[in-house]
Amino acid sequence: MGNLRYQLNQKKSEKINIQLLYITQAKYGNDWHCNMHTHHFTEIFYVVKGQGKFLVNSNEIIVNEDDLILVNPNVSHTESSINNNESFEYIVLGVNGLQFLNETTLDKGKHHEFSIHNYYEYKHEVLFYLKTILNEVRNEEKDYESICQNLLEVLIINLVRRTNKNILIAPTKKVNKECQFIEQYINDNFKEDITLDTLSELTYLNKYYIVHSFKKYKNISPINYLNAVRIEEAKNLLATTDYSVAHISNLIGFSSQSYFSQVFKKDADMTPNVYRKKALENQ
Question: Where are the domains of the chain?
Answer without folding.
Answer: 19-170, 177-282
